[in-house]
Amino acid sequence: MKISIFSLVFKDRSLEEAIKMAAGFGYDGIELWGGESHFPAWTSLNRAKEIKSMLDYHNLSVPCIGAYVGGFSTMSDEQCEKALEDLEKYLCLMDVIKCYIIRVGCGGPHAFEAEKYHYQKAACWIQKAADLAKQHDKKIAMEIHNGSLIETVESAKAFIDMVDRENAGFIHDAANMYITDTDYGSRSVETLKDKIFHVHIKDLERVHDDSLPGAFRDRTVYGTEIFQQKLLGEGAVDHVPLLKALIKNGYKGYLSVECHAKVPDEHRAIHEIEEIRKQLNIAQKDMSIIT
Known about the structure:
By secondary structure, the protein is an alpha/beta fold. It has nine helices and eleven strands.
């Protein structure tokens, strides 16, 4: 497994700075944030070529585009068509920068509130998105996220079975799944298997004080809860069982840092890659003992 960093970590910097810093800190790749200052759908082909040149100079790959395309379940058909137009723009840009996975959102509401028609509409449009991506030899990945139709392992598995497209899968995010209180370790990998296309790594913790740095409120099946963004290894999300399961399952993709802890971005980027390497070593040693 290789390690990348989501350029969202450097959201207050230019993409040029983000790429340079990612390479300087030892990352293998950089996941491009679809925000206006980094890699929006309206990025020109000339700009994409400039970005590819920067990536090549710094020996970085792009494992995924962190786009904000989709949300089909609660959109009008007109909005859904516009989302597919944006997706096609991205797919053309991805041909230039040699990226093969793009995040596409199925939409909400929470799985525990969703009706059958939410899943049916989302599945229909995700199928269209996957078919469009296939024309460019690309994959689409839906992030497992609280507040979405696929916030639990069970809802994600049921939805991907409805979609039934080889090039449609998931971004596994243990911290998001911790919020939802769904399994994010070995069972999640055993259930989703090769539908895990990409993996986000970050840490957080349930707290009782929303005045803490990086604290935020989120609604879950238990009501409104408070969570605090943490540096990896300092929160409540244990990634080692996940890493062991990914190794066992033969995952060859990227682990992508997405830390939002309230410390300087440079500090986050350095700490996270060092901690991921430590946890990967622990997971690999545990696996060698088992085998």
